[in-house]
Specification:
This protein is about 40% helix and about 20% strand. By secondary structure, it is an alpha/beta fold. It is elongated. The chain starts with a helix and ends with a strand. The structure holds S-adenosylmethionine. The site of S-adenosylmethionine has 22 residues, from helix 6, strand 4 and helix 10.
């Protein structure tokens, strides 16, 4: 039996040619499409069939594969962490833009790091940046730690993972010293949970999704204390839901930021709060 045989079988069962191809590539370790004519070893067949069965049961393809691309990184992901999203790649882009205004290697905090997607992208893409990545979930930090180890010693030495709720995870010595705080906090309201696709609500960690009754609880907690941690001329960059744009800007102004606005994601929806401190 060749990989083509398994590929066609999976195509019939999943009706998803991307997933079928990714599973062949993952289980075979071969390159597409040459691998299709190669014979399937028993171990490869077992791994492939298990992936197809997990996907058929509704598990997101990213968890089935066990890793997913985010900007320049290939991140390990499983059910302990949110699957990194394309809109969060835009959050990193906006954060890097804010960092470009600074002349010195910056000090950054990523609050609610999950897989480490934002923190590790900044370490990788901003020369010299030192990043503190926090999470309330020890499970998420274990995944971030595995991803950090994959960066290589030089880059990994510029990131630290700390456990705790939002700012409280950080050492007191960072108060007033951060050049940038970035976060993709939970922003789904409890009442919205039922309307999420089941692939999200059944599989992704609720602590990563649900903020509380209004959906703004996490952002409120982050903005409220931000100015105590941020240095002059610094900024807070946070992912929001599109309908939260006005409320997010109001939260930033009532927390004392001098300037606040929302930038769009790649589809033009308002998704990234930028709040700047006065010099
Ligand atoms: C939407 S996920 C974002 C994960 C990752 N930064 C990303 O963009 O893919 C939110 C993260 O915040 C964490 N979190 C939830 N409540 C928290 C809190 N009070 N303090 C710190 N992290 C928290 C969750 O565990 C989760 O990892």
């Amino acid at each position: 039996m060749t990989w083509r045989h398994l590929y066609l079988e999976a195509l019939g069962r999943l009706s998803d040619r991307h997933a079928a191809r990714w599973f062949v590539e993952e289980a075979s370790g071969g390159s597409w499409p040459a691998v299709l004519d190669e014979p399937v070893p028993t171990r490869g067949e077992k791994a492939f069939c298990s992936m197809v069965a997990r996907r058929e049961a509704g598990e997101p393809v990213q968890y089935v594969l066990g890793h997913w691309a985010f900007r320049r990184l290939d991140l390990m992901v499983d059910r302990r962490v949110l699957i990194p999203r394309p809109e969060t790649e835009v959050v990193v882009e906006v954060a890097l833009g804010e960092l470009a205004r600074l002349s010195v290697p910056p000090l950054v905090a990523d609050l609610g790091t999950g897989s480490g997607a934002i923190a590790l992208s900044i370490v990788t893409e901003c020369a010299g940046a030192e990043v503190w990545a926090t999470d309330l979930s020890e499970d998420a930090l274990a995944v971030a730690s595995a991803n950090l180890a994959g960066l290589g010693a030089r880059a990994a030495g510029r990131a630290r993972l700390v456990h705790g709720s939002w700012w409280h995870a950080l050492p007191e010595g960072l108060k007033g010293a951060l050049d940038l705080a970035v976060s993709n906090p939970p922003y789904v309201a409890e009442s919205e949970l039922a309307s999420l696709p089941s692939e999200i609500s059944r599989w992704e960690p609720l602590q990563a999704l649900i903020a509380g009754p209004s959906g703004l609880e996490a952002l409120r907690a982050i903005t409220a204390e931000a100015l105590g941690w941020l240095a002059p001329s610094s900024a807070l960059v946070a992912e929001i839901a599109p309908h939260q744009d006005r409320a997010a800007v109001e939260l930033a102004y009532s927390a004392g930021f001098a300037e606040a606005f929302v930038k769009p994601d790649l589809t033009g929806r308002p998704r990234v709060l930028v709040a700047r401190r006065r010099t």
